[in-house]
Amino acid sequence: MCPQTATSAASRAPRDHNVYGFLTRRAHGFYARDAGVSHRKNLGLLRKIICQESTKFKNVWTTHSASPIAYERGRIYLDNYQCCINSIAQEPRILYQKPKCSKSEKIEDALLLECPLGEMLPSPSDYKSSLIVLTVRNWLLRLSADSGEVLEKIYLADSYCKFRYLSWDTPQEVMVVKSAQNKLPAAARQVSIQESVLFYLAVFQVLPLSFIGMLEINKKIFGNSVTDVAVSNGILIVMHSMGLVRLYNFQTILEQFMEQPFDLGHEFNWNGQAGVVGKYPFGLPRNIKITDTPPLLFEVSSLENAFQIGGYPWHYIITPNKKKHKGIFHICSLKDNALAKNGIQEMKCCSLEPDWIYFHPDMSGRIIHVGPNLIKVLKLKEVKNNTEQMEVAEDFTIVANRENCVDNTVTVTASGRVVKKRFNLLDDDPEQETFKIVDYEDELDFLSTVAVTQIGADGRAHLDIHCNEHGLLLKSIPLLESWDVTYSHEVYFDKDLVLHIEQKPNRRFSCYVYQMVCDTAKDDECSNHEKNERVFCKKGGRIFEYT
Fold it and tell me: Which InterPro entries does this one have (predicted)?
């Protein structure tokens, strides 16, 4: 190499190295000006703003409905998904309002579909959020989340089965459509005709929407005692009537028993059927035929088929399969079924509603155990001097505020007579503050709880925001509407929004929308329901109540 060339190469080397380093860091998400970094910074700022003392959540509007109300990512759906309202604005903004649908077009289930990052998609509409809905007549529709326009239509099957449920195998990647349990008409059962097919499963890859296969869950293969099935994270979960839960590798089933792949919209002539895949009247071919019992990955017996997997290393949670053990949870290693040290968890509470336990959705491997007045966040860690065994240890606890509880066991009448009650209050008695909902806000890393106290007909609830790492109370948000513990309730905390959906008797539904406000002059408005002036307005044939 000549001196000039060597000098040029030497002078370029640092720059080439920097470019390589830049590209490497960019590939790993370390580019300071990319959208992800900006988004994380914005969420960090929002987290700080929410935690400020001057920040309040105000009930900005309310609406009521005679049909169920659903919420998905800033959108409120009413009238069986025929009406969509943007919940972000301080006043309700109707994104779309469709004419009332007939019973044959009723939507049975829905999933929100969001655009995957870093992939080239065939249609511009694929880059926007859409809603996958399943109708009562076995139609699978993909709707625009903002306009309700039908983007795709797939006919699943004719009357031999009724598809009812949508779920994710892999979130935002692989979707499963499950039928209701297949039952023969009463006349057929009376003459002892046996139906061997219990469920049908149709599997799709999403965005672009493509058909993977359809299969039967047959009692001749999986046994007569099958009561339900599910698919999650590549595992086929089969539940039996005696509490037995069996796991199979779903990907292996697809590969081993698929007879022929098919593409949506393509003509087919197969097994005596001819038509177009996904079009009426043929629907989808049953191209996965399980002819033999698949290899069993794992089985366990649990009360009411309750079974969860999570943690690190992998563990599972069950309740021993006897009624006397209800409310007792065993945490065991998935590797060898060994019970973890301190792996038997029991609240020892006396309540009408049972306590519940689950793996923390923040992927930390921790466990959340919720009782009427106590929330325990547990963690798995190695036993000291024994790396082969894990133990369950307490990470932190959240305790309900029962400091002001009155002892009602002894009362004094007007005449001065002392009356003693012969019973004690239950741990979840409505007159004592009781935890009803625990949720995780993944974008802000908050753990939220809803606690309720009801004295007489008047119930009061508040949503508390806790530090997810240590459990410290960061903010308490009072819910101004009365809370009846006998009704069904859902509460969503989604960044700067709190949404309360209530189901009253006779299919009456209410939706209360709270939004973050930072104006200190309005503190009293947010906390005093009586001072607020209520205004009624009609939009799109629907009445809204404003504050």
Answer: DCAF17
